[in-house]
Amino acid sequence: MAHTRTNSTTITWPGKRPPPPGAPPPVRLLEEWGLEIAEGEQAEFSQAALALLPDQPGDSLSRRPNALFHGDNRAGLSHLLATGQRGQVRLIYADPPYNSGATWPRKVRLRTGEASTGDTIIDHQTQYVDAWAEGDYLQFIYERLWEMRDLLADDGSLWLHCDHRHAHHLRCLLDEVFGVENFLNTITWRSQTARGAKVNAFYFANSAHTIHVFAKNCRAPTVWHQPKKRLVLTEVEAAAEFMHDAHGFFRTSDPGTYSFARLKELHAAGRLYAPYSGQVLIDESNRRMVCSNGGSIGVKYYLTDLGNGRHAVERAVDNVWDDIPGLGTTPAEDVGYPTQKTEALLRRIIETATNPGDLVLDPFVGSGATVVAAQKLARRWLGCDLNYGAIQTTRRRLQRTIGADAPGFAIYRIASPSSAFVQHSLIEPQALVNVTRTLDGVEIEVNVHDYAVADMPTVNDWRAVVENIDIDPAYDGGVFRGTLADAPHKRSAQVCGHYRLAAPPSSNCVAVRITDVWGRETLVVQQLADETFVEVKRP
Q: Measured at the alpha carbon of residue 229, what is the angle toward residues 361 and 318, in degrees to the nearest 5?
C-alpha cells in the first residue's frame, strides 16, 4: 500500500542527484547447502565437521529465500525488487560503512591445533577501505535507501546502524526517504567501554553507536514485540536496590485495576505489601484492602533466586541499550572480521521487529551476525556484500549453524551493470587429495594430504594454514552443492583432513574446496573412476 508522506526533511551535499533507475543485473548461482547434520558415529570427522544432505537443484529465490549475494548491494537490491521481493521484507538491518577514513584489516592467523600463548598472526589483510570523496558517502547511502524502502512490507521497519560521524546526516536522509512521520526511535547502544588510551580522550571517548529506526508505514501498524532484558545481581547489589522478606528480594507496583477478589488471592499468597512497617487489612464491608499504618498497598514482584548469591530481575528496554556487550567483551564470538557486531544485538532487533518465518534482509552482511541470528530464530533471510571475505566468513558461520530443523541456503554472484562476472581465486595452490569409493560403494572417502603455496611460511603441519574444507560428492562442473563442511570454530582448531560421506547414486565426480587462512580458495576435482588426484580448478 502506498503511503503519502505528510512531512519531509531534505539535506544537500556536493553532487546530490536523484538515484539512477535500478537495472536488474545478471545473477549466477554459485553454491547450495542442504539441511541435516550427520550423526555423530562418523568418527573421522573433526568436531566442527558438518555433514549435510544435498538440497534439490535450482536457483529460484522464491523456492528458497535464504540466500547470500556477492556483489554490489545496489545491484542486489534491484535484483530482489525485480524477482518478487518488493514489499516482502519485514525487517532490514543495515550496517553500512561509516566514512571513518580507515582501512579495515583482518588478522591472518595460523591454526596451531592447540591453545597457544605465542603470537600466531602472520599477516594483515585489507577487508575494505572506508574513505570517501566529498559527497560520495551520502550519495551512496541515499541511492540504496529508496530501494530498501520499496522492499519493506507495509508493517516492516528499517534499522540503520551508524556512529557519531554521520548519525545526524543519516537521520536527515531517512526523514527525506521514509518521511518524518515514520520515525520510530533512535537507539543508543554502548558498543564498548572506555579503556586504555581512550579513558583520556579529549572531550570524552566515543563508546556508543546509533541505530535509527524507521517504519515503512507507521499506520500499518509496524510489527513490534516489546523486548525485556534480564539482569543478574549479586546479593549485595540486590540488597541495595530491592526490599527483602522471607521469600526473597522484591519490588512493588501499584495494584492498578486488580479486583477485590484478586487482591485477596495475592494477600493469601503473601504478595501484598503495606508501607511504614504496617499490615494489610481486609475491609470486607467496603470490599477493599487497606494498610494499618497508612499509605497504599503494593503488589510484590520477586526476583528469581538463581542460587550461589545471584538473583535475576526482568526489566523493560528503553532506547539506551547498555546491557548488550560489544565484541570487545565477548571475544569468544570474534570471527576475525573487522566492525563485527554481536549476535545478542541482532537477536534483540530481530525478535522485536519480526515474527517467526518473516523475511530479514541485511544488505551489508559483513561478519554475518544478522543472518546467523535470523537462522537461529527461525526467520528467513537475505544478505549481500561486495567483499568476498564477508561472504566466506558468513558461509563458515552458517555451516556451523545449520541443523536438522534449519533451512539451507544458496550463494549467488551478482554482476554489476558495468562489469562481467569475476573470479575471486587469484592463485592455484598445490594440494594433494585422494578420493575413492569404499568397497561397498555406499560411501566416498576423501583424504587431504597436503596444501602449500609459494609465499606460505614454513609450517610443520599444512593444516595450520587451512581455514576450512568443503566437499561436493556429486559435482556437476558448475554449481557447488556442499554436503560436508569442516569449518572449526575455535581460532586454533584445525581441519581433520580425512572424511567419509554418503555417495549419491548418480555421483561420478567429487569436488573438494580448500580455503586457506588468507581466504584463497582452490577447487580439487576428481572423477570417481580415478584412484588419485589429477586436476585442480578454480571455482
A: 75
